[in-house]
User: Which sequence fits this backbone?
C-alpha cells in the first residue's frame, strides 16, 4: 500500500508540486545516490515510492514500469545528479562501443542517447549537450554500419524501452534510414553518416514546444502553427553550432515537406495544392522514414498503423518520382521486420 506524504496536507502537496521535477522512470537506473525520496503522481497526489536517501533497486524500477508509470518526480538536486551520471555513462559507452558484446553495447548506447536527448530538449542552447549528442551519434553511425546484423534488434530493443515518442522517434527513424541507405549502395559511408546525423537532429526544434502539447489529440490553431514550425526551429538551433554542411541543414529545415505533400493529396479536392518545391532523394528518404516510424508506432492519442497501410501512403508520396527506390524500400522493410 502506498502512503502519501502528510496525506491530508494540501500545503505539503502544493509545496511538492512546486519543487519536484519529472524524469523518465528509465533514468532512475542512472541514480547512484539520491538525497530525497522518489515520488509518483497518482490521482492528483504525490506518493513516495523510494524513501529518502535510498537508491531505487532494479526491482523497484521494473515494478514502476510494469505499472505503466512513465515518469517519476524527484527534487532538482537529485535531477542534476542523475543527468550528470547519464552523461558520464553515455561518454563511457560511446568510447568503448567496439569493446565487448556489440548487441549489448549498441542497445545501451541507443537507450542512453535517447534519454540524453531529453536533456537537450530542456537545454537546447547548451553547446556541451549538443556536442555530446552530435559526437555520440557520429560514433554510433560508424558502429551501426559495422554491425549490420544487429540493426534490426537495436531497433526492436529501443521500441521496447517504451520511451515517450519525442525521445525514441529520432533514433528509430534514423536507424531505419541508415540501414536502408546501406542496403541500396547508392551513398558513400560519409554521406550515410551525415544523413544519419541530419535525420537524428532534425527534431531538436521541438525543444521550443511545451512538453504537454505532445500528447494532445486536437490542437488549437496556434499550437498547430508551433508544430508546423519545429523544422525551422531545428534549423535555427543547429545552424553554426554543428559541423554539418548547408545541404544537410537544408534537409533538416525541410524534413516535413512530404507530410505537406500528403496533406495536399488527402485534401486535393478541397483546395488547390501549393506549388511544390523540388527536393532530392536524400530529403525524400529522411522524410519517408520519419513518417513511416511515426505511422507504424503508437501515439498517446492513437494506435499505430500496419506496415502495409503505411506503405500504401508512402507509395503515394514517392513512387512516381522514385519507383526503383520505393520497390527497394518494400523489399528492405520486409527483411528488416522479419529479422
Ligand atoms: Fe519533425
Assistant:
Amino acid at each position: 500500500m502506498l502512503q502519501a506524504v502528510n496525506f491530508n496536507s494540501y500545503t505539503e502537496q502544493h509545496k511538492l508540486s512546486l519543487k519536484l521535477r519529472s524524469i523518465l522512470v528509465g533514468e532512475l537506473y542512472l541514480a547512484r545516490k539520491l538525497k530525497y525520496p522518489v515520488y509518483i503522481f497518482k490521482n492528483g497526489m504525490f506518493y513516495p515510492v523510494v524513501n529518502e536517501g535510498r537508491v531505487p533497486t532494479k526491482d523497484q524500477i521494473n515494478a514502476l514500469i510494469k505499472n505503466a508509470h512513465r515518469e517519476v518526480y524527484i527534487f532538482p538536486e537529485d535531477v542534476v545528479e542523475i543527468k550528470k551520471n547519464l552523461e558520464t555513462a553515455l561518454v563511457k559507452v560511446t568510447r568503448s562501443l567496439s569493446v565487448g558484446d556489440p548487441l549489448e553495447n549498441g542497445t545501451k548506447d541507443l537507450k542512453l542517447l535517447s534519454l540524453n536527448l531529453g536533456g537537450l530538449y530542456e537545454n537546447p542552447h547548451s553547446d556541451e549537450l549538443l556536442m555530446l549528442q552530435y559526437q555520440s551519434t557520429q560514433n554510433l553511425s560508424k558502429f551501426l554500419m559495422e554491425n549490420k546484423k544487429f540493426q534490426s534488434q537495436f531497433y526492436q530493443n529501443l521500441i521496447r524501452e517504451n520511451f515517450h515518442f519525442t525521445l525514441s522517434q529520432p533514433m528509430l527513424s534514423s536507424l531505419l534510414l541508415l540501414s536502408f541507405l546501406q542496403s541500396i549502395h547508392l551513398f558513400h559511408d560519409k554521406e550515410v553518416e551525415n544523413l544519419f546525423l541530419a535525420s537524428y537532429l532534425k527534431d531538436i526544434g521541438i525543444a521550443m514546444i511545451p512538453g504537454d502539447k505532445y500528447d494532445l489529440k486536437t490542437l488549437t490553431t496556434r499550437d498547430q502553427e508551433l508544430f508546423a514550425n519545429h523544422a525551422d526551429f531545428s534549423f535555427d538551433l543547429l545552424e553554426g553550432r554543428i559541423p554539418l554542411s548547408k545541404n544537410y541543414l537544408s534537409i533538416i529545415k525541410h524534413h516535413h515537406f512530404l507530410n505537406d505533400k500528403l496533406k495536399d493529396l488527402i485534401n486535393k479536392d478541397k483546395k488547390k495544392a501549393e506549388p511544390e518545391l523540388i527536393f532530392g532523394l536524400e530529403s525524400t528518404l529522411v522524410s519517408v522514414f520519419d513518417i513511416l516510424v511515426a505511422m507504424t508506432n503508437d501515439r498517446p492519442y492513437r494506435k499505430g498503423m500496419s506496415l502495409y497501410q503505411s506503405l500504401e501512403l508512402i507509395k503515394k508520396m514517392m513512387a512516381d518520382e522514385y519507383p526503383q527506390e520505393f520497390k527497394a524500400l518494400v523489399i528492405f522493410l520486409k527483411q528488416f521486420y522479419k529479422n
